[in-house]
Amino acid sequence: xxxxxxxxxxxxxxxxxxxxxxxxxxxxxxxxxxxxxxxxxxxxxxxxxxxxxxxxxxxxx
Length: 61
Prior knowledge:
Blueprint: H1 24-28, H2 45-60
């Protein structure tokens, strides 16, 4: 909508698994339908949970 662009880091995105029931970015984005899953990086729910655990375990080390 303006000059500011945001990019989601696929290495850190868990599609909000472990935090919320639905991806929060999709709910708060003012331009509906612009945030979609990366077709070049499909991840299962299990992979997203694994990523969540790794990200939060790394914070505690």
